[in-house]
Design a protein that fits this description.
11% strand, 4 domains, Rossmann fold, two-stranded antiparallel sheet, 15 strands, alpha/beta, elongated, 9-stranded mixed β-sheet
Length: 697
């Protein structure tokens, strides 16, 4: 298996970067912030997806320059898909209103085996599906039946139809469209128009203006006689625009559905819809029974139209359930017509054929349910095991939905599921969850390369290792996948390459150090022996042929690491403070060293730096010109910023000063680290800022 040799050119601040990636393995790329690690990730992903976004990485210095070199990525010709974990993934993908992760069904349940089993089950329903497909008018009939059912509204407590329902508003007081009152015969052409409710509404709006005088508000004709004004007002008395609208719409629906009603039902409906006076109690009872019949047919049609694994998933005795799905028009006699049977008979025929195979159907569904159950349990245990080992009180549970499955979030102190997980989880908890969920998405989508952009630097040491173990050693992990982890945190390299290397093998991960100077990113392989204690590194550097001031810088750090802040430490601290006479500063005293103490302490330091002489070195560090020369002579960034601190004390930029100060003291450094003579860990911009200050006359 050939590894990748990737070259990235002209992307943001990177002029050129050459990095190697081992196929089928974890590749850790460790380097300081500001190096361009995120740019490396974006460039590789853009090229892999070929989505046109690579052009967005053109350096600012090249924008607007005709003929300037464009962003380019070589060496990944067989990488065509990528998934990236970064802050955007956490913010945009992972936490939804009603499930922990978007599309949790696709990620945790819908495996290729799931799709195959589902396809086999769905084939058994092909006959029923075809029976519906062969009669497209069923869809319109079902819609009309639902409209008519909904017109009955919510029934009264005794089951009778409510007066507020559309049906009773339309027909309850008689059909005054077909039976226009005698006084309104002059308006019959409008009442019986295609949209009578619109005309009636217009008429009613003019009612208030009749009170202003004896002139018609519509045509300005005089209305001298009282009976003429009464005629104009009669429309508002007799008609309600909303009720007429319901009546007109329901008439159309009933006419379309007419062929599906039995002869007796059609006759009774005709009497009701054309009644001149208020409906009788038997007529209302008939309508109530019709509503129940319609509801029953809708349920059976919808149940058969949507029959699937999901509709039968929770049925204990499928062989007893299937015969009950048949549509028995003898029990729904109001809808027992030739047209209705022409619809239901083919469906029932296909259902009979399915019933003949019910043993096979039952077996496949139960087998599929068992596989899904096993998949769900394995995924839940994988995630919840990680959460327990990392000390989180949360857990996840995958539950069934009507036609899917969703992952929900639980807390050990809460009996119900947590909605809107993002509102309850801390920043670190979101990242931990998102990482593990991302791993499962990778397993689901199987991309050619996985990129983790600084994924775990915000976690404490125990959680970092728990996450790494889950991602690369747990069951169903990313172990054998081509994975690129870009980080400014050395701990993953320490754990995987050195302290826990025996846990991470087959394949063994690769770790390299990234550095950038003048736009060129280089990488240096990190071997187990490269990760050492600072005490070991200090011993190596003190044996080199370098300036005693540089050696003193490392030795002072060594004393601090081993918690030896006695006379030797105070002597070196005084040296860097440029004190002619060294001092002793402790929690109990603050005084100058005696001549004997100074001599004795120099002797102790000379065991590490044989040529050490305090007075000579104080003169040297007090000479700014000499120290500036040392600054520009050394190629080691760590030494440059320590020399800058001795020369200048601090930078005018508080952020740069903070970086220098944190590099000076041990509190913010790891005991295990890389030799700064071999691995350039100080960001280029920090060195450049210090150089600018020292270059000012």
């Amino acid at each position: 298996m050939t590894d990748y040799e990737i070259t990235i050119e002209n992307c943001n601040n990177i002029d050129t970067a050459k990095i190697g990636v081992k196929k089928g393995s974890l590749n850790i790329k460790f380097g300081p912030n500001g190096l361009g690690k995120s740019t490396i990730a974006k460039a590789i992903v853009s090229q892999a997806r070929d989505d046109g976004t690579l052009a967005e990485l053109v350096p600012f210095k090249s924008r607007g320059n005709t003929g300037a070199a464009q962003p380019k990525v070589d060496g990944i010709d067989d990488i065509n898909s990528a998934l990236v974990f970064d802050e955007a993934y956490v913010n945009l993908f992972a936490f939804q209103q009603d499930e922990v992760v978007k599309n949790s069904f696709d990620i945790f349940v819908k495996t290729p085996e799931y799709d195959t089993a589902m396809a086999d089950i769905e084939k058994l329903f092909d006959g029923i599906k075809k029976a519906f497909a062969d009669r497209p008018e069923i869809e319109q009939a079902t819609k009309d039946l639902k409209d008519l059912r909904d017109a009955f509204g919510k029934p009264n407590k005794d089951g009778s139809i409510a007066k507020s329902s559309k049906v009773l508003k339309a027909f309850g007081s008689g059909n005054k469209i077909d039976n226009v009152p005698e006084a309104l015969k002059p308006f019959e052409i409008f009442v019986k128009s295609a949209n009578p409710s619109k005309w009636i509404g217009w008429q009613i709006k003019g009612k208030e203006f009749l009170e202003l005088g004896d002139t018609c508000p519509y045509c300005a004709t005089a209305l001298p006689k009282p009976e003429q004004k009464e005629t104009a007002l009669a429309v508002a008395k007799e008609y309600d625009a909303t009720a007429i609208g319901h009546l007109n719409n329901l008439k159309e629906v009933i006419e379309r559905l007419g062929k599906y009603f039995s002869n007796g039902c059609q006759e009774n409906l005709a009497k009701i819809t054309k009644a001149k006076i208020e409906l009788t109690a038997p007529q209302k009872t008939f309508l109530s029974d019709l509503k129940n019949s319609i509801e029953a047919l809708i349920q059976q049609l919808e149940g058969l139209r949507t029959i699937s694994f999901f509709s039968l998933r929770d049925v204990d005795e499928i062989d007893k359930k299937m015969p009950l799905l048949k549509i028995d028009l003898g029990m729904i006699d109001k809808l027992d017509s030739g047209e209705t049977r022409a619809v239901t008979d083919p469906i029932n025929t296909q259902l009979d054929k399915l019933i003949e195979q019910v043993g096979n159907l039952k077996g496949q569904i139960n087998k599929h349910k068992a596989k899904i159950k096993k998949t769900i349990e394995e995924n839940q245990e994988s995630i919840n095991g990680f959460l327990r080992s990392a000390g989180y009180k949360y857990s996840v549970k995958i539950i069934s939905e009507p036609d899917s499955y969703k992952m929900k979030l639980e807390h050990e102190d809460l009996s119900d599921f947590i909605d809107s997980a993002s509102n309850h989880l801390s920043y670190g908890e979101k990242n931990a969850f998102a990482l593990v969920l991302f791993m499962h998405q990778v397993l689901s989508e199987n991309p050619d390369i996985v990129i983790l952009d600084d994924p775990i630097s915000s976690f404490d040491k125990n959680k970092k290792f728990a996450i790494l173990h889950q991602l690369f050693r747990g069951k169903g992990s990313l172990r054998d996948r081509t994975t690129l982890m870009l980080t400014h945190d050395i701990e993953p390299a320490i754990d995987i390459v050195k302290s826990m290397a025996h846990k991470f093998k087959d394949p063994r991960p690769s770790a390299t150090f990234l550095s950038c100077r003048q736009g060129e990113v280089k990488e240096t392989f990190i071997a187990s022996e490269d990760i050492r204690t600072f005490a070991n590194i200090c011993t190596d550097i003190l044996s080199e042929d370098i300036d005693d001031v540089i050696k003193a810088i490392y030795l002072r750090r060594h004393y601090e690491i081993v918690d030896n802040v006695g006379l030797e430490y105070n002597l070196l601290a005084s040296l860097f403070k440029k004190r002619a006479s060294p001092t002793i500063i402790t929690t109990t005293e603050n005084r100058e060293m005696s001549a004997q103490e100074k001599t004795d302490t120099e002797t102790m330091v000379q065991a590490m730096i044989p040529s050490f002489d305090y007075d000579t070195l104080v003169a040297q560090v007090s000479d700014d010109a000499l120290m500036k020369k040392s600054f520009f002579d050394t190629e080691v960034g760590y030494e440059k910023i320590q020399l800058f601190r001795i020369i200048n004390g601090k930078h005018q930029d508080d952020i740069i000063t903070k970086f220098i100060n944190e590099s000076y003291h041990i509190e913010n450094e790891y005991v295990m680290q890389l030799n700064p003579h071999e691995f350039e860990s100080v960001p280029e911009y920090v060195v450049e800022e210090c150089a600018k200050v020292l270059s000012i006359p």
